[in-house]
Design a protein that fits this description.
alpha/beta, five-stranded parallel beta sheet, 7 helices, 5 strands
Length: 157
C-alpha cells in the first residue's frame, strides 16, 4: 500500500526553532528532512555563502521531488523567507500529486537573538541588528497564502 506524498515547508527566521520543529516532523512522519545549514556545515562551507546555499537548496529540492514521486514525506526547512519561494515549492509538489503544508514559526527579534546567543553556532555571529533587518525583509505568510495549502499552522514561540 503506497502512502500519500506530502511536502511540509517550515518557514521562519534564524533562531525560531525551525530545526527542532522539522526534526520532530521527521520522526513523526518518517520523513526526509532537508536543512541547508547541516549540509553546509558537513562540507565546511560558510553559512553566509548565499550562492553555495542556493546550490545546495537546488540539489535538496531535486532529491525532494524524487522522494515525493515515490510517495514519501519531505520536510523543507530552508527558512523560505519569500512567498515566491514557498509558492514555487507548493506548486512543484502539487504537480507531483503531493499534499502540501506550511508551518510558519515566529518570535520577536529579541527572543531569536537570545536563542542564537545560547547556541553560539553561527560564524560570523548573527547580531540583533541582523535579526531586526531580516524581520523587515521576511514575507510573513498571509491568511490568503496559508489557505492555498492543504494544511497550514502558525506557531508563535
Amino acid at each position: 500500500m503506497s502512502q500519500q506524498a506530502r511536502l511540509i515547508i517550515v518557514c521562519g527566521l534564524p533562531g525560531v526553532g525551525k530545526t527542532s520543529h522539522a526534526k520532530s516532523l521527521e520522526t513523526e512522519f518518517q520523513a526526509f528532512r532537508f536543512c541547508p545549514d547541516e549540509w553546509m556545515e558537513a562540507l565546511d562551507i560558510n553559512l553566509w555563502e548565499a550562492e553555495k546555499r542556493s546550490q545546495i537548496e537546488a540539489l535538496q529540492w531535486q532529491l525532494g521531488q524524487r522522494l515525493l514521486t515515490l510517495g514519501q514525506t519531505v520536510v523543507i526547512e530552508w527558512g523560505t523567507w519569500a512567498r515566491e519561494e514557498r509558492e514555487r515549492l507548493r506548486v512543484g509538489a502539487r504537480a507531483l500529486n503531493a499534499t502540501t503544508e506550511l508551518h510558519y514559526l515566529s518570535a520577536p527579534p529579541e527572543t531569536l537573538f537570545e536563542r542564537i546567543q545560547k547556541r553560539a553556532r553561527e560564524k560570523p555571529p548573527i547580531t540583533l541588528a541582523n535579526l531586526r533587518e531580516w524581520a523587515q525583509t521576511f514575507e510573513v505568510p498571509t491568511s490568503e497564502e496559508m489557505a492555498l495549502y492543504d494544511r497550514s499552522i502558525e506557531l508563535k514561540v
